[in-house]
Amino acid sequence: MERLHWLLSRAEVHLLSASALRDYAKLGLVLAVTILLEVARRRNWRVRYGGKSFRLDLLYFVFYYGGFYHILFFTWIYVALTGLVARYTPGLQLNLLYAMPGWLQMVAMIATSDFVGYWSHRWRHSHWMLWEFHSIHHSQQSLTAVTNYRFHMVDETLLRLWLFIPFQILGTTVTTWITLDFIMAWLLLIQHSEWDWHYGRLGRVFVSPVFHRKHHARAAELHDTNYGMLFSFWDDLFGTAERKLPAPTVYGVDGPEIPESFIGQLLHPFRSIWTRWRGRGAPLPDPAPSTSA
Fold first, then answer.
1. pLDDT given at position 166
2. Exposed / middle / buried, residue 207 (Cβ in 10 Å: 0-12, 13-18, 19+)
3. Would you report the helix, strand and coil content of the chain in percent, each value rounded to 5?
4. DSSP readout, 203-269?
5. Residue 160 is part of which domain span?
6. Through-space distance between the first and last CA atoms of the chain, rounded to whole angstroms
7. Structure confidence at residue 205 (pLDDT)
């Protein structure tokens, strides 16, 4: 009971913290803008935002940005990793960016995180076991801005672990991270909004909603392309960009049905992996291999 009380008190602090309130306001503003745009286009926004799948994506948002993920899981990993680095490999903490101007720190951090994110993303599509966790993100069949937060806990943690060493080497300030998060979140949220925006010439630099929608297509030949998180030129550089085919209208994943509940999606990858290892039922298909550079 004492530990439960501690967890609840910590959760309350995170839920009402200044950073959490900022994140709520940011998401609320993006949702308000996108819903107003859909009203203006006379699209049936009630179907998109009134269903169970949208409420589930909101639950993912609260889980990650309300502090539950950090309190229950990632904080312990981060503390352990930083302790190991400080004790055994202190030379990694070079803080290469510390003396640079704030704007240059942001440019370097964005480029680094997006480069690492691109290759992490490809890896999670090409390895069958990692795909079981990442497929949760692709299970949404009605994209909205909040789909950006639908990630299995293992999937989210793998990305953070990939970023841990580069960030230890580069180093940065908390202020830089707050500003960086605010800038990137806008573009990442809009990517999942299912708008027919290409960004014109800027679409060769930034991931537009049309560019990213192809990645969420049910067809494997599309969802194994366009891996960029913020910048689309990584896909052009490494041969995984798809710009010619029209944007899809059907989203989701093939294969065993993924439950539309938080606990169900938390357990689903583990059940699928166990079934494959035990050889019960039909074997689960590997995702199509990523296009080579």
1. 80
2. buried
3. 65, 0, 30
4. GGTB--HHHHHHHTBSSHHHHTS---SSBSHHHHHHT----SSPPPS-BS--SSPPPSSHHHHHHHH
5. 2-278
6. 54
7. 94
Is residue 285 one of the residues assigned to a domain? Answer: no
DSSP 152-174: -HHHHHHHHHHHHHHHHHH---H
In a domain, 194, yes or no: yes
CA distance 30 to 145: 8
Share of the chain above pLDDT 70, in %: 78
Position 169 in a domain: yes
∠ CA 238-187-235, rounded to 5°: 5
Place of tokens 């819903």: 35
Question: pLDDT tens for residues 186-241?
Answer: 677 788 887 888 999 999 999 999 999 999 998 877 888 999 999 999 999 999 99
Instruction: Specify the number of domains making up the chain.
Output: 1
How far is CA 182 from its chain centroid? 15
Say what the pLDDT of residue 283 is.
Answer: 47
Establish if 45 belongs to a structural domain: yes
Ranges of residues in the chain whose predicted pLDDT is under 70: 1-23, 26-27, 38-45, 172-186, 280-293
